[in-house]
From TrEMBL:
Ranges annotated as biased composition (Polar residues): 96-114
Keyword Metal-binding: yes
Cellular component terms (Gene Ontology): nucleus
Keywords, in A-Z order: Metal-binding, Nucleus
GO molecular function per UniProt: DNA binding; DNA-binding transcription factor activity, RNA polymerase II-specific; zinc ion binding
High-level lineage: Eukaryota, Fungi, Dikarya, Ascomycota, Pezizomycotina
GO BP terms, alphabetized: DNA-templated transcription
Domain Zn(2)-C6 fungal-type: start-end pairs: 12-41
Annotated stretches, region: Disordered: 92-135
Cellular location(s): Nucleus
Organism per entry: Bionectria ochroleuca
Keyword Protease tagged: no
Protein name from the UniProt record: Zn(2)-C6 fungal-type domain-containing protein
Length: 612
């Protein structure tokens, strides 16, 4: 507070302002002098900011969009008004285009966080009504090939695009690329991205003549640019929200997608996807809205599980009052239809989605992740999983022909879902720990957990080796695969023979062959520790056969990965390395996987593995 030493003040004094009387603004004012009170003048608050003009609002919106591009490591500083092929495209690291080995973690193959993804990011541009945006599309012939690849390898797993309708739109648009709307462009670029992602590097190079990472980055950035041009964050357009969902599916395990997925769900709620459609909405649109809502929630569940350890999938109350999509083929749907078609009994194009239902959601919701489960809780969870298996069998498993690739995949994914749940329900980490740190389980329960773990990895492998887009399985095949293999290896120290044991060793061998860093990275303490416990399990197996009068080499040849682990162990022992210290469970929290920024892995649960 302050007062002027001379002259009049600009505003009334505090006393006059509070009493709401006229002030002569002198120092002191006449009213305060008459009342014999202190006359104080306060600094007037700054004026309220005027309402921003339309151009300032546009600048603010552009700033928000630029922030999104920066978060996605997209360099937009040198965008021009024309498409210029970058010489840097040919200088992408060989590891991006030539290596097909997956990563132990979701982040290694992330499209949004790849070390080299910035190389081509500045190549794409979308201007509202611009004259050069059509140059970002491939040639019409390539557009059709990409569309067919999407239909065959990606769409059966997501089913949010009506193939007959979309195919007609794409064919028409491919011959008039200059006049495509941003929503349709976003949809097409997302489809291109998903199609390329489903190809191997060799297939992509042979078919399209460019490195796979270059095309993925180009089409993803173009898709994001088109979405921004269409104001995707404020949309109520079904096609644009579908394009947004497809874009998120191009890199479903990235931090970028994890942050934007709840936004897509909120947009869906604003559009009313979580409740029955208005009677004036056509049946065709209503069915596509239902499919999209289920996919958005599946993506949300995936993001929660991948990036927030211990976070549960959306509760039924969050999901809304919406039925499961009908068991029909795309040919049964038409934009002009007024009545719902008759549902099929048996497999359809929706077969892979038939495992999703409100009943199955209730089962997943009933599985507890709390420690120290009681016998009653376990019995209740087993009953729920039995119910889930019954639902799957009644709805579609009994009708499948496993010689048909989509049927074989659907069967594997259904069995994977139930066996994974049973493995999680019976895992030793959820048992009470005694005062000496031990965990006790009945043999039947231990066998059930082990068999469920082996079955889970077995069925996951079927999915990964199928003709369908592998990246849609990575949320299962990253931390889950690593965690489950550690559990199986630990169990193999006391399980020596039998059909499931042989299958377990085959899966462990495939695991080490797939992730060569487990064998080659001597600097990673965790990998060294995992190799040591694997050798312990193999040595226990060798002694078992020796005690039964049979050499293990007669029963099971020495795998190459065991030989490599053994040689590295001998080398370390010769250098007096204290490997035993690496196995101390208290040190597990400090282990880091290579090239990982934040795997959000529950390291606390890892410590329990080493007890068994």
């Amino acid at each position: 507070m302050s007062a002027s030493s001379s002259g009049q003040h600009k505003y009334a004094c505090s006393t006059c302002a509070r009493r709401k009387i006229k002030c002569d603004k002198a120092d002191p004012c006449s009213n305060c002098s008459k009342a014999e009170v202190q006359c104080l003048y306060e600094e007037h608050p700054p004026p309220r900011p005027r309402k921003r003009a339309a151009d300032e609002d546009l600048i603010a919106r552009l700033g928000a969009y630029e922030g999104l591009l920066r978060d996605n490591n997209i360099d937009f500083s040198h965008l021009s008004h024309s498409w210029i092929s970058s010489d840097m495209q040919g200088k992408l690291k060989h590891s991006m285009s030539g290596s097909e080995s997956p990563s132990l973690t979701p982040s290694t193959n992330n499209l949004a966080t790849s070390k080299d993804s910035h190389v081509d990011n500045g190549s794409a541009e979308w201007e509202r009504g611009g004259s050069t945006s059509h140059k970002l599309h491939p040639e019409p012939g390539q557009i059709y090939r990409l569309w067919q690849q999407f239909v065959e390898a990606v769409n059966p797993l997501i089913k949010i695009v009506h193939v007959p309708t979309m195919q007609q739109q794409i064919l028409e648009a491919s011959w008039d690329l200059e006049n495509i709307s941003p929503p349709l462009a976003g949809l097409m670029f997302s489809i291109y991205s998903l199609a390329v992602i489903s190809l191997s590097s060799a297939q992509c190079e042979a078919t399209y003549g460019e490195p796979r990472p270059t095309l993925i980055t180009r089409y993803r950035v173009a898709a994001l640019s088109a979405l921004i041009a269409a104001d995707f964050l404020t949309t109520k357009d079904l096609q644009l929200l579908t394009a947004f969902a497809l874009f998120l599916l191009t890199d479903p395990d990235s931090e970028f997608t994890s942050s934007l997925t709840p936004t897509a769900v909120r947009i869906g709620q604003k559009m009313g996807l979580h409740k029955p459609s208005h009677p004036k909405v056509s049946f065709f649109e209503s069915e596509m809205r239902i499919r999209l809502w289920w996919q958005l929630n599946a993506l949300d569940s995936r993001a929660r599980g991948s990036h927030v350890p211990g976070m549960r999938p959306p509760a039924l109350v969050e999901f809304g009052d919406i039925r499961v999509p009908l068991n029909i083929n795309d040919a049964d749907l038409h934009p002009d239809m007024t009545e719902p078609p008759t549902e099929h009994i048996g497999p359809t194009e929706m077969t892979c989605w038939l495992r999703h239902s409100s009943a199955s959601l209730r089962v997943f919701e009933g599985i507890s992740n709390t420690p120290e489960k009681s016998k009653r809780v376990l019995e209740m969870e087993d009953a729920l999983i039995d119910k889930l298996e019954s639902i799957y069998h009644e709805r579609f498993l009994q009708y499948l022909d496993l010689n048909i690739p989509l049927h074989a995949l659907s069967n594997a994914m259904a069995i994977l879902a139930s066996s994974r749940l049973r493995y999680m329900a019976h895992h030793p980490r959820f048992r009470a720990v005694t005062h000496d740190g031990a965990v006790y389980m009945r043999k039947e329960e231990g066998d059930l957990a082990f068999n469920s773990a082996v079955t889970s990895l077995e069925k996951l492998q079927i999915g990964e080796q199928s003709q369908y887009s592998r990246h849609l399985f990575t949320h299962i095949s990253s931390t889950f695969k690593l965690e489950t293999n550690v559990y199986i290896i630990s169990e193999l120290r006391r399980r020596f023979s039998g059909e499931r044991v042989e299958m377990a060793w085959k899966l462990v061998q495939d695991f080490f062959n797939e992730y060569q860093e487990l064998l080659n990275d001597e600097q990673n303490s965790f990998f060294v520790a995992l190799g040591e416990i694997t050798l312990d399990a193999w040595e226990a197996r060798r002694r078992y056969f020796q005690n039964h009068g049979q050499e293990i080499m007669e029963y099971s040849p020495l795998p190459r990965f065991i030989e490599l682990l053994w040689n590295k162990q001998q080398l370390r022992n010769g250098q007096n390395l204290q490997v035993a210290a690496m196995l101390d469970s208290q040190n597990l929290d400090t282990f880091e996987l290579p090239d990982v920024h934040d795997v959000n892995f529950d390291w606390e649960s890892w410590s329990s593995f080493w007890r068994f």
